[in-house]
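Hi P.,

Sorry for the delay on this. The queue was packed all week, but I finally got your sequence through. Input first:
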Amino acid sequence: MLIKGDLVHCPSLGEVAIMRNYLLRVDSRGYVDHLAHASHADSLSILMHEDPIIIPQGSFLLPTFCDLHLHAPQFMYQGTGLHLPLMEWLNEYAFKAEESLDSKPQLAESVYRRLAARLIEHGTGAVLLFGTIKAETNLILARVMREAGIRAFVGKLSMDISSRPTYVEPSTNASLEAARSFCDRCLDVSASLPAHERLVEPVITPRFIPTCSNELLAGLGLLSAEKDLRIQSHMAEAHDQIQHVLSERKVDDMDLFAQSNLLTPRTVQAHCTFLAPPTLARLAKTGTAVAHCPLSNAYFSAQPFRLREALDVGVRVGLGTDIAGGYSIDIMNAMRQSVAVSRMREGARISGHYQAAGDHTEQEDKVLSVNWKEALYLATKGGAEALNLAMGSGSFVVGAPFDAQCIQVFDAATGEGTGGLDFFQDPRPDGLTLETLEKWWCIGDLRNRKEMWVQGRTISRH
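Then the structure:
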């Protein structure tokens, strides 16, 4: 596949590069094998033998988004029940929904197919998923994501403790065996495929400390190391959750995860809102990444995530929607919310009202806000690096998988804005600019998304 037009990506945090009139070629395995300006000698040589797909003026290619935290079964009740604190919400909504899907495979198929369609509709090409405790239901999820063409990492929940007697695994050993079995079965499904087509993988998923015994956590740490598997969980998310762990285990959840060898470069921990800068520095040394979910944090955390501080000490951070603790499946909303929350934190710092427990005084002189360019990096390359995707993922470079979305901001023939974008001067003479990109970032929506590819293949929401 050969494409000619404007490309946009974030080579580093805070940097947005517009590559105007570039030629990009994708090989038969879905990797970029040529990238240069269309007037470059190599590009001209290629164009002599092949006609490219033309990205018209007013449109551009952007890497697909990465969602680092989404509860697939909770998509069923997205946008409801957000009036309760976390531990009550889990009992009243989450566990019931997950148990329902485990008992109704046809319902699970329906929910997951709709979820896949919505992810594609909103430009998400890679997603880290929490599932349910039943292996068969998670295999349905894995199959649906594979058939949709989404790069998906599926976690069967491990839970040997629960406040809901009907939604818990029978013992620690049974939970460990179920996790091992699911991982083996999930890997077997794609074992016969070429490596570049293995888009779906299993993830070790202790739900969070309150639902996992110390013995289960230790066993899952060993299983992850043995099979070199990714790990996901929740950490330091909400005040009631933190107090519950301290009361029951007499240590905080980060120490328990560390003792169980569950804080590794293969790990993504959601939230981490109660980690102060010194603890974030400790986390960075483990290589563990954080899924920042600003919307759900507003509902369930008593304080926001220290995003700027995490980035400053070298924590790898990506964005998550946290369906259904967050009600929007759109990573564009997660980008906007991450900036809004950081600006409120910065305002509190300037006015002298912000001093969270555990923060040192030297933090008072450091700007806490992030901007739209940094948020776009977190949604693309930052998320890809947090997920340990293939080299170059989340950007346009030779050797990277071609995971891309085509965004239209204005019509090439008329100059009219697309979707919610309005231009009161013809944008065509200037072409694609940083101001136009910022406008799309702020008020663009799914109407601007015209096509999407993962590993070089077109994928569709239909």
